[in-house]
Amino acid sequence: MEGLILDCLGGSYTVETGEGVLTCKARGVFRKNGISPCAGDRCDITGDVIDSIYERKNSIIRPPLANIDVMIFVISTCEPSPDTMLLDKFIAVCEYKGIAPAVALTKNDLATNEYIPAVYSSIGIPVFVCDYQDSASTEPIKELINGNVCAFTGNTGVGKSTLLNFIAPELSLETAHISKKLGRGRHTTRVSRLYKLFGGYIADTPGFSSFDYLQYARVTRAELKYCFREFEEYEGKCRFADCTHTKEKDCAVLDAVQRGDIALSRHRSYLQMYEEAGSIKEWEKR
């Protein structure tokens, strides 16, 4: 019988099947073969045992989650302040893994931010400005979930659980306040779990206090430029065929940055990630 793993806790798996939701265990051979079933995996089960895992179209390691269609990055206008470098690293991972990125901007009652909607909407990434006094502001998020496995993630304290509780009160997710001393929130989500809602699935993932995108995907320098979609229209227009878009003369991307056609913050993120990718070998990719 075919199933979808909704969550995993202590070696016990919750699996949705055509006959209902079952609690299953995995065959011991998975561990022997270095396979770790996780939320989002499609699988075959016999009785209450997971026999096999279908090939994944994508996955992330931390937190473990497979077959993601859409990743919504929750970012706040303040407390904590928005970090576009962090956001760009997230988006690059999505581009690399074939996941559609989107942005949800929270805490708009406390501060305003026009830069994020302007920059990311201009390159085709949906930005949802969330207003909890206006339920219509989050309706597009529900529409995006329909028919998809949609993961929500973001820096600790940005209000991810608050947003999910607003669009789906039945989740009743635990929330936490920002520590004034530390400037960050407590982790309230501890495991990845799929919830069936709005014609699709919501994956609530643990927040983080610092982000190393290499834990999610090891992208080589040669591949990194393809993770910045606004570079695409300048492909083949640089003076040098192997242009890295970092410091070369007559680089079409650098010229676009200088003109303001590519956001300076996005290119700065690219430069930092390019340096970080310098030590990655082809065989290390994942």
Keywords:
6-stranded mixed sheet, 15 strands, 3 domains, 286 residues, Rossmann fold, OB fold (Dihydrolipoamide Acetyltransferase, E2P), Ribonucleotide Reductase Protein R1, domain 1, 5-stranded mixed barrel, alpha/beta
Describe this structure in words.
The chain is α/β, with parallel strands linked by helices and 286 residues long. It has 3 domains: 54 residues, Beta Barrel (OB fold (Dihydrolipoamide Acetyltransferase, E2P)); 140 residues, P-loop containing nucleotide triphosphate hydrolases (Rossmann fold, 3-Layer(aba) Sandwich), CATH 3.40.50; 66 residues, Probable gtpase engc, domain 3 (Ribonucleotide Reductase Protein R1, domain 1), CATH 1.10.40.50. The protein has a 6-stranded mixed β-sheet with strand order 10-9-8-11-15-14, with helices on both faces. Strands 1-2-3-5-4 form a 5-stranded mixed β-barrel. β12 and β13 form a beta hairpin. α2 crosses α8. The radius of gyration is 20 Å and the shape is globular. 37% of the residues are buried.
